[in-house]
Design brief:
2 copies of one chain form a homodimer.
Chain A: H1 11-22, H2 26-38, E1 41-42, H3 43-49, H4 54-67, E2 70-75, E3 78-83, H5 85-99
Antiparallel strand pairs in A: 1-3, 2-3
Helix pairs in contact in A: 1-5
Chain A binds a DNA duplex through residues 1-5, 25, 27, 42-44, 47, 52-62, 74, 76-79.
Chain lengths: 110, 110
Amino acid sequence: MGLAKTEIFTDRQNQIALFAKAFGHPARVAILQHLFKINACICGDLVDEIGLAQPTISQHLKELKQLGLIKGNVEGTSVCYCIDNESWTGMKETMLEFLNQDISKKEDCC
Amino acid sequence: MGLAKTEIFTDRQNQIALFAKAFGHPARVAILQHLFKINACICGDLVDEIGLAQPTISQHLKELKQLGLIKGNVEGTSVCYCIDNESWTGMKETMLEFLNQDISKKEDCC
DNA sequence: TTGTTATATTGCAATATTACGATTAATAAT
DNA sequence: ATTATTAATCGTAATATTGCAATATAACAA
């Protein structure tokens, strides 16, 4: 199939999976790290910074933008991409709740 | 391609991506949540709990096991799967560092 | 041994993802 | 107007992922 059966899971489970999927490629991890480091960025920088072709970077940026984690403002011929901090905070809450399931948990069972 | 160019990224970036990828499917999210809830589990439970066929669950369990996040002990005809808490803690550190990049950051740039 | 139960593995079809060359669109500079 | 620059989009090849039926394996029960 290649198609996840999202209908049988909760919205929350699907949302966690969607966020995680966005971080599931090192290029997108690197893009986000760079955006945090620079705190303002144009796409050309990213093509130089990360060693992938321009259309590939553009595609990764699109995915992050669709999720709402980054936003882009057109500035002349270039586009200024940056983190959407509000959205990042929201995502973090969801992911932290998932990651912190282990607190209040005893030792391994087996 | 369909093949990520891992060579051009740092080990850390690749590791974040690997962990995230594991959480990038709602079935694996649901499996982990269930294991935390029950704190001891046999696979049959999971097939009932989650609405996927037995081979599919088995495959998802294998991926989580390969990453080290869960471990399975054979008990008679069934297998007792549970969270590997030590491994989970290690994963959490890595992911938290990534997710918390936003602290010590100013407002949006654009 | 024969059957039963529980899980893993294999094989495969459907779909998704990754990457990039070629092209396009939009603005800026001359 | 022409040309350069930047980034998005299109098309496509290679590979990965998801899901399941069929089958295999392993442990136990009778």
